[in-house]
Structures are given as C-alpha cells and as structure tokens.
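Hi F.,

I've been meaning to write this up properly since the lab meeting, where we talked about keeping a consistent format for the predictions we share between groups. The idea is simple: the sequence comes first, exactly as it goes in, then the structure tokens exactly as they come out, then a line or two of notes. No screenshots and no reformatting. I'm using this chain as the first example so we have something concrete to point to.
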Amino acid sequence: MAYTQPNQTIVNSGGAGSSGHYVWNANPPPHPSMMRAEMPLYWTLRDGRTAKRVPRSQEFTPSQQTFSGITFSANGWHGVRVKDILNRTVVVDCPTDTIFVDHGWRATTLALNWPGYLPNRSSDASRRRFSTHMDGNTNRPMTRQGFAEEIADLILDLYNCAKDKPVAYGWEDWAFSRNKVRLSDVFILSAHYYRNVWIPELYVINME
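Output, unedited:
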C-alpha cells in the first residue's frame, strides 16, 4: 500500500509564522509501519526538506519484519539526523525505553544493507554484533537513545571505511563522498528485525 504523509496535503505552508506553517509543525505524520504501510520513496522532514529512502534488498521491508520495529523521532517527527545523534545534540522521543528487555537477548546484530557497498575480504564495516546492555553493563539495559547511537556509530564506521571508495555499478549516486552522500545527509527513521538481524530505515537528503 502506498503511503502519503498526511501533512503533504498542505501545498504551501506560507512560511514561518503563518497558519499553514503552524499546522505543519503541529501535525507530525505517523510512521508508515504503524499503519502497516510500506516505507515511501520520499519522506518530508520537519523543516520541509525532502529525503529519499536508502534502497535495500527486497526481503528487508517492514511488512516482512519478525515483530514490530523501533522508531526514532524527535518532538513527534520521525527522522533523526545521524550527525546530531553522534554529536549528542538531539534526544529521541521516549529515550529511556528499554527496547530489548522483553527478548532476553545478551547481544543482537545490526546491519546497514547500504546500496553498492563492497566489503573487503577481511571485514564488513556495514555489520556489527553488539550488547543489549549499555556499555556492557548488565544493570543498564539498552535504551532507545542508546540504540539510535549504536546505529549512528555503525553508519559513521561505514562512512569512514567506504568514503571515496568504488561502489557496485549502478549505485554511484549512493557512494559516500563529499560530492555524493555525506554523513550529515543521513537520517534514521526506524529499525526493523528480520529473522536474525536489525536493518534500519535510512533516508538521505540532497539526492535530487
């Protein structure tokens, strides 16, 4: 089912201070997975910028997830910027939720499934196994904020590993570089579990 952000029906907000702008900011759209909808190709951020969904393998779509995903929003708006998470300048909504405690896991796996990325033979910078406890402390279960930081940190590792490196043919627009995808362009909307791995839903601005 195609998903359209409800606030996209506001054709012209009129700018800051206008009634249209107030309606836009006061009505953040729900995450598509909450409506059992597929993720849209484009997502409008709170500031009105449009971000494009990072492509992934067909089996990694929210409708195929093992159980409900974990969403990341700030002030009700889904989509938190990786750079802001890394710089500790944003706190996600419900940051202290202990998101893994009901699963009884000691550790779990996170992977990015970034288009065109070619891992080397010795390591894969797009994949990581991590503790479900903060800093490995069994008395501190992993929180929503901590998971956002884990995702952002893996994206940073992949960025540093893949920056200015060749990508698979046909995926050149998704290469990490100063002239293509920059770390500051990437936003995290959610993460979804598929059989044995978490795959985040990522969106990138400045793709058109």
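Notes:
Confidence is low (pLDDT under 50) at residues 7-12, 18-24.
Strands lie at 42-44, 50-53, 70-71, 73-74, 77-78, 80-81, 107-111, 127-131, 186-194, 197-205.

If this format works for you, I'll send the rest the same way.

G.
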